[in-house]
UniProtKB/TrEMBL annotation:
GO terms, molecular function: cysteine-type endopeptidase inhibitor activity
Leader sequence segment: 1-22
Organism: Oryza sativa subsp. indica (Rice)
Name of the protein described by the UniProt record: Cystatin domain-containing protein
InterPro entries in UniProt: Cystatin (IPR027214), Cystatin_dom (IPR000010), Cystatin_sf (IPR046350)
C-alpha cells in the first residue's frame, strides 16, 4: 500500500473516534428541571473536539511482492547498456621510404658480334692428269689420213694458202676427258714443186663433223 493511502486511513480513524467521544459527552448531561422547562433550555456548550495528535511520520516501504506459485519471478532488469566509444586509432606509423637505388654503372659498349666465319671453301681437287699420249703405229690408217687432210684444208680456207696434202709422216693421239681425241701429226705438204713438212694439232670426235684445228706450223 502506498504511504498516502495509509495516512488517509489514519486520519479517517481519528475523526471517527472524535465523533464517538462527542456523543458520550452529550448523553451524560443532567435532565432539565421543571423550572427549566418553562424557560427554554440554554444550549449546551459546544464541545470542541480534542486536538488531533500529530500523526507520526510513517515511512513504510512497499511490501515485498508476493510470489505466485504459478508465475516465475520477473527477470532482473538488464544492466544499462554502456556505450563506450572505441579508442581513437593510433597515428599512422611514419615509414621512411628507402633511398632510391643508385643508377647502374654504365657498362662499356658491347662490341658488335663478330661476323660468322666464311664457309669453308670446297677443297678443289686438282684435275686428274690427262691421259698419256699414244704413238700412231700405222700412219696409213684411214682415220689418221682423214685428220691430216682436214688440217691442210682448214689452214688453206683460213689463210688462202695454196697447199696440197701429201701424207702423214708420224704422229700421236690422246683421248680427251670431255670427249673426242687430240691428234699431233707431222705431215708432208706440197707447195708447187716444193715439198715441206708441217706440225699440226687437231681435236675432233670420230664419226661427227665436230673438228677443230688448233695449230699449223712449219717444221724446221
Amino acid at each position: 500500500m502506498k504511504p498516502s493511502l495509509l495516512l488517509l486511513a489514519l486520519m479517517l480513524a481519528t475523526f471517527v473516534v472524535a465523533i464517538a467521544n462527542a456523543d458520550d459527552y452529550t448523553a451524560a448531561a443532567p435532565a432539565p428541571s421543571s423550572e427549566a422547562e418553562a424557560s427554554p433550555p440554554s444550549p449546551p456548550p459546544e464541545a470542541s473536539p480534542p486536538p488531533l495528535a500529530p500523526l507520526p511520520s510513517v515511512t513504510s516501504s512497499p511490501p515485498p511482492p508476493t510470489s505466485s506459485p504459478l508465475m516465475p519471478p520477473p527477470p532482473p532488469p538488464p544492466p544499462p547498456s554502456v556505450t563506450t566509444s572505441p579508442p581513437p586509432p593510433p597515428p599512422p606509423a611514419v615509414t621512411s621510404s628507402p633511398p632510391p637505388p643508385p643508377p647502374p654503372a654504365a657498362s662499356p659498349p658491347t662490341p658488335p658480334p663478330s661476323p660468322p666465319p666464311p664457309p669453308p671453301s670446297p677443297v678443289k681437287s686438282s684435275p686428274p692428269p690427262p691421259p698419256a699420249w699414244s704413238p700412231v703405229t700405222n700412219v696409213n690408217d684411214y682415220t689418221i689420213q682423214q685428220v691430216g687432210k682436214f688440217a691442210v684444208q682448214s689452214y688453206c680456207l683460213n689463210t688462202g694458202a695454196k697447199l696440197v696434202y701429201v701424207n702423214v709422216v708420224s704422229g700421236q693421239t690422246q683421248p680427251c676427258s670431255g670427249g673426242g681425241s687430240n691428234y699431233q701429226l707431222v705431215i708432208n705438204v706440197a707447195a708447187g714443186v716444193r715439198t715441206a713438212q708441217y706440225s699440226v694439232f687437231v681435236w675432233g670426235i670420230l664419226g661427227t663433223t665436230t673438228w677443230k684445228l688448233w695449230s699449223f706450223t712449219p717444221k724446221n
